[in-house]
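INFO  loader      accepted 1 record
INFO  loader      residues=344
INFO  predictor   begin
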Amino acid sequence: MTDGTTDLQALAAEAYIYGYPMVRNLDEVDRLARKGMGSVPPAPANEFSHGSRPADAATPAAGADHDTLCSIAHLDLSGGALLLTVPDTGGRYYVLQFVDAWTNNFAYVGHRATGTGEASYLLTPPGWDEEVPPGATRISVPTDAALIVGRWACAGPDDVAAVRALQEDTLLEPYWTATEEPRGLPTHTYISDDEPALLFYEKLRIRMAAFPPAPAEATYQQRFAPLGLLDAESPYTHPESDLAGALREGLAEGKAKVEQAASEEAAEGLNGGRPGDHAHDYNADYFEVGTLKDPQWICSDRDSAHLLRAASAHTALWGMHGYETEYARARTDAEGLSPAGGRS
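INFO  predictor   done
INFO  writer      dumping tokens
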């Protein structure tokens, strides 16, 4: 392998670590819309889909457990702002977690963050500059595609009906100034499933263009130009052999690094603290309602944050910050094996 191809492979591995969270996140969003997840039925964009029984392993939301019901809404703000109304829960714990296309947790609404009274929130897309209606609180959404992942405390089967009533009173509707139909997730150029590496980088290329990150990250993305990730047209349908080889090897290398980091986080905790406590501290750019802009909860080194974000997407997609919840994790399995596969 030539030095140039070796450099491309290293760059492809870096791009995999950087882009894996968004690619997996939006793949799951697409699956939610088409097939649903566990007890959460399929639903179109900008509509809540409510689970009618405790979340299970089919729902990738980290922290899904046996004492909550789950609600999920895929947001598409390309057509304009949305108005969110939440009911008075009478002190019952709930949280609506807001996740952008890059898996950044950028807002929380609920018991800890905003209380349990009735409230309205205007969810606005990037570049929105209109007035917020009286009585509503604005939440600026960093990317046109985003998620709300809701968790509602449920004391058991006899409590399900009460929770379901609260879910049904949680409403999303287009704000009256919204004048366009949402565009939906961008469609990428067809790449065969037999070429998973090329398909991954094609998804990343089209989604990077559709959902720009924070300005600091946009500058960072320029380094991926030699891979074709900034090209307006897909370079992956008939790539040159050196590029194709570098992408295949780079994906394998990046995937191995993500899996290793995920194992280390599960076993020992990354970024300090217990496993899981700081697994979602990679957002350093967007702090809306309910988030804590505190150095304790921000991984300031962006390279480390990219790896942390990828590891979290791999094992705990849609997981919340440690200040909203604590995740109990076993250091070994029933056979005494650690998450990395060895005995501790």
